[in-house]
Structures are given as structure tokens and as C-alpha cells.
Amino acid sequence: MLQELTERILATIAQAQRIPKERITLDSSFEELGIDSMDGVNILFALENEFDITIPDAEAKQIRNVREMVDGVIRLIQEKNAQKNQGAAPV
Amino acid sequence: MNRRVVITGIGVICGIGRNLASFRENLMAGRSGIRPISSTALGDIRFRRGAEVEDYNPAAYFDPRMSDFMDRFAQFAVIAAREATAQAGVVWTTELRENTAIVTGSCVGGQSSEDAGFRDIYHLGRNRVHPLTIPKTMANAGASHISMEFGITGPAYTVSTACSSSAHAIGQAFHMIRSGQVELALAGGSEAPFSYGILKAWEAMRVVSQDTCRPFSKDRTGMILGEGAAMFVLEPFEAALARGAGILGEIVGFGMSSDASHITQPSSEGAARAMRAALRDAEIAPEQVGYVNAHGTGTVANDLTETKAIRDVFGAHTERLPVSSTKSMHGHALGAAGALEASATVLGLHEGMLPPTVNFREADPECALDLIIQKARPAAPEYALSNSFAFGGLNAVLAFKSS
To answer: What ipTM is given for this predicted complex?
Structure first.
């Protein structure tokens, strides 16, 4: 499940940056992928839309590589799901 | 023909004052006009502060029949032009009206009117927009309304180079007077970007601070949007002298350049080229400059590259070169920024008091400049530069001489 999510995030980044998905790994640096600050903002926008999350500016500023981006997005998705499940009747 | 060009009138309306006198007072007192945004409903927008014109009431300036035809940005342009021409004591004749130029700058023009119209059709499902949406939105509306206000029939146009717009506009008008193309010019810029759609677009860029504007301070968190207008009356030195007009300052140089590198990331080389071009145009040496009004947006991208550019151009003289960013008070008024900052620069030279950078808290080793911090600094430099650097990499620098 986590692996699947990671793949989807990487695919979203690749599509936004218009590079082949094979070029991106969790260990890629932004420099290697030619991602500058405006590209970064563009990618965050794509991720927010793809996963229906909001990435706060303060958190966005801390992100320095793909791994941090993926970890951050997974955490926000999990938080969103937890919120959604809150108040739901226990099974 | 290369005539000297002087400023005989300045009109200002912005977040730190609705006229030149209050602008001057707040500027020199270091009072910031950055406050919670109130002219538009912010909804979920992440930033909440801007430098709006306080308690703006169009009815105080315009007959409703007239203001119906004008977006807020065009109203600001006319208000500033009225103050500038009144101060200059311009006596209009048919001949002078034909020989007067109007050059205005604006980045977003009347996009607030457009935004309202688009909201009507896309969001509210109406099937028509206001019939004045087009003439209110066009970026040249400010220039057109100024021309109608005073009956000016000479060359009139608008420059749109994002955050450099009004610096380009003043520079163009300066060259027109210097070369003898016209005998008088009204030049400056106006902007009114506080509408929901435009603010959402700025939010998406993640460059607007949720705190305040802290140029060159290590704890900076981005820019703060502003609005308003500033207009200059420019005329040949000899003409001003002959009619006994008060001279507020002199424009001596104008330099332009293009980064040709990135649509949003500034380049220090491009900024430095524009400053060097202004010095060359003014025929002055870097060591003669005693103040730089920085573009100083309070973003990391600007502050670091602008510092590098200043150090490259001025070398060792940088240590003795006072620099400030008045955006910390009037915000980043986009297409009006260059004109507001040119006004601050001219006032500083004229009064021997250089306006400060406020909201400064922490020195940044990467912005090693002689920053005028928190309080205005008494100094009487002969020459000063006003820097404007735009998204899109289009740079405009004006050089002024004190009068």
C-alpha cells in the first residue's frame, strides 16, 4: 500500500517536471532532476491536486529532496484519512 | 539635444499615505502600512496581510458617474496625477497639452474588475458580465483617464513589465523629455491587486509572507503585496527655472536590461547590468552614488541576488553605500512599486534624510550591505539609484540627483 502510494507520488512528480518516471528515485536530489524553486512550487501544486491535500508553506520550505517530499505527502495523506475516519462508528 | 530633466511634482497614494505629505511623514518615521487585508474577503487564503490604501473612498475623489467607468487602479493613477500636477503648478495651454506625454506602468491593470466579471459567470452562473469590464480591465486605462482628466493630447501609453513597470515608464518619459520629444510628462504607475482571484494566484506561488515584509533580514518570510500609485511631473530644467517652479529632484540616468535566464528566478548579472547602464546613462561613477533604494522584496531569491549585484557594481564603495527597502512599509505594489520607490528616493535626496528598512530583526551574512535599519538616516548624497527587478527578468534602474 505504502509502496503503491510512493509510486503514485513519484509518477506525479515526474509528470509535473516532464521527465521519465524511471529517472526519479527516492534518493534523487532536486539538482539532479533540474528542479528549481518555481518547479518545486509547480510540483507541490500537482501533488495537492492529485491527492486532495494542502501542503503548508512552512513545510514546503523544509523540503530539500524527493524523499522528504514523498514522506511529507504520505504523512499529509495519512492525516487526511485519519481525520476522515474520526467519528466513524467503530467496526 | 540632451536636456536636463527635473521633477516638479509628485503625487502619491498608497498604504502609508493618501497624499505626498502623509507618505513622506510615515516613510521617514518608519511606519509600516502593512495591515490585515480588508478591501476583499480573503476566504481560505493563507496570507492575511497587505499594504492597502487605508479607508479608501472613491466618492471623496470622483463623481460616481466617473468612478463607475474606472477600476480602482485607474482611480489611483488619476488621484496621483492630480496631486503631482497641482504641486507642479502646471498651467495648461493647448500647445502644452499637445506637447505633454503620459507614460504609466501597471502589472495587473484592472484584473480586479475582470475577476469580478469572471466570478459572475463561472461561479454565480450569470450569463453576462458588466459591459465596462473591458475598458476597466485594460492596463492603459490609467493613462487614458489621466489624458481625459487634463485634456492631454500628446503621446500616451502604458508599459507592463511586472514589478518594473513604473520604473520603465518613468525612464521612458525621462528620455522623451531629455531628447526634446515632449515638453512635459506625467509618468509613474498604479496598481490595485487586492481581489480574490489575483490573491489566490499569488498564494499559489508561495512567495507571500504570512508574517510581514522583512527585506534583507535573515528571518525574512517573503513579500507583502501593496497597492497605490505614484506619478511624477517631469519637465526640462530650463522650463522649470523659467516658470519659477519648485524643483524636487532631477533624473539623470535610466538603465534597462533583461536577464534572459528564468521566468521567476532573478539573476544578479541582469540586475548589475541595469545598474551599470543607469550609471553610464547618467555619466556618473559608482563612487558618486550615496544611496540605493533597493528592489528589496523580502524574498530569499531577491535579497541575495540584489546584494550580490550591488556588491559587483559598487565594489569596495558598497561599504559606504546606504541601502534600504521601503517595501517594508508600502508593500510590493507591483506595477506601482518603481514609482513609489522613486518617490521615496527623490524625497530622501531632497530632504537629506534616507528612508529606512523597517521590520528588520536579524543581520544576514549573505546580505552584507550598509542597511538603513528601522530609522531614517540623515545624509545628503548627491546621487541615488532606485532599483526595480521584475518577474520575467526585466530590470529597470533610475538614477537621481538631489536638488
So the answer is: 0.83
